[in-house]
Amino acid sequence: MTARTAAWHAATVVASRPETATARRIELEVPTWPGNEAGSHLDVRLTAPDGYQASRSYSIASAGPGTRIVLAVDEVPDGEVSPFLVHDLRDGDQIEVHGPLGAFFVWMPSDDPAPVQLIAGGSGVVPLFAMASAHAASADATPFRLLYSVRTPDDVFFADELEALVGERFALDLVYTRRAPANAECAPARLTVEGLRAAVIPADQRPRVFVCGPTPFVEAVSGWLIEAGHSAARIRTERFGGS
Ligand SMILES: Cc1cc2nc3c(=O)[nH]c(=O)nc-3n(C[C@H](O)[C@H](O)[C@H](O)COP(=O)(O)OP(=O)(O)OC[C@H]3O[C@@H](n4cnc5c(N)ncnc54)[C@H](O)[C@@H]3O)c2cc1C
Fold first, then answer.
1. Which domains, from first to last, does the chain contain?
2. Which end of the chain has a smaller Cβ tally under 10 Å, C or N?
3. In the chain, which ranges are E strands?
4. In this structure, which residue's CA is closest to atom 53 in ligand 1?
5. Does residue 13 contact residue 89 with C-beta atoms inside 8 Å?
6. 108 Cα to the center of ligand 1, angstroms
7. What span, in angstroms and rounded, lies between the C-alpha atoms of 106 and 85?
8. Using a 6 Å cutoff on CB, does residue 214 contact ligand 1?
9. How far is the CA of 241 from the centre of ligand 1 (A)?
10. Which of 207, 212, 232, 38 is nearest to 135 (CA)?
11. If 0-12 CB within 10 Å is exposed, 13-18 middle and 19+ buried, where does residue 59 land?
């Protein structure tokens, strides 16, 4: 693997569309982008006409050597940056991005034959989707499993793409916290330690685990994984903020 050095880049919005009821998928063309591993993120910097600047981190839903980058931004009500990205950004707009960042929270094919467990809360699925897609595109035979906690069926990011990945090498478990589909086996409820244990690769298989989402979600899940016997050294986490 060649090292990809983080730098500032000019990015142009080339496409965008609703991802969920509250989120938008944004595709950027970044001619100087060095490519990125699956799971990395970047910083977006916006500059107002009066020179005021604001930056926030966003995971990259795409991976590989190309110069097209896909982001998926969920609106945080009353937030400073995400409402602008979701509602006001237009095709052709220019923004600045700094990256790629986050070499620790990435997946790439390796000699480690252990299965990979992904655990997402809400928009935390963005980097995990990049990992699942990169895995599907590779010859890597290790099994992947994604446990994805969302409020309702309308809040599932990358719903069709995730469904299409399901097969011998990828399993998807959705947990609905507020409203479940009519044919769901379980009533909507927040993820619990028991629910987690039932839906993740058992600790005795020594999976590599990637957990991403709002900070309280990541902290609860990490604690439950340790309680269930998973080694802290096998768990990687990314916190999106919030309390
Ligand atoms: C490494 C990394 C990757 C990220 N990737 C993504 C991504 O792919 N998609 C995405 O939608 N977001 C992602 N985020 C979150 C993103 O950086 C912003 O925090 C989020 O968009 C809110 O920014 P804002 O300016 O709208 O809100 P702010 O003005 O910063 O905050 C407004 C209020 O919302 C709270 N808040 C801030 N962030 C969150 C949050 N994530 N959840 C709940 N409450 C919050 C704050 O505490 C504050 O009270 C990522 C964060 C990190 C650190």
1. 7-101 (2.40.30.10), 116-239 (3.40.50.80)
2. C
3. 7-18, 23-29, 41-47, 53-59, 68-74, 94-101, 116-121, 144-150, 170-176, 208-213, 235-239
4. 240
5. yes
6. 26
7. 25
8. yes
9. 6
10. 38
11. buried
The H or E element containing residue 183 is none
CA 68/CA 48 separation, integer angstroms: 24
Token pair listed for 67: 């110069």
Tallying the residues shown for the chain, one arrives at 243
SS3 call for 45: strand
| Cα 106 to Cα 202: distance, rounded to the nearest angstrom | 22
Structure tokens at 64: 């590989």
Q: What is the pLDDT along the chain (243 residues), one digit of tens a residue?
A: 456 899 999 999 999 999 999 999 999 999 999 999 999 999 999 999 999 999 999 999 999 999 999 999 999 999 999 999 999 999 999 999 999 999 999 999 888 889 999 999 999 999 999 999 999 999 999 999 999 999 999 999 999 999 999 999 999 999 999 999 988 888 898 999 999 999 999 999 999 999 999 999 999 999 999 999 999 999 999 999 987
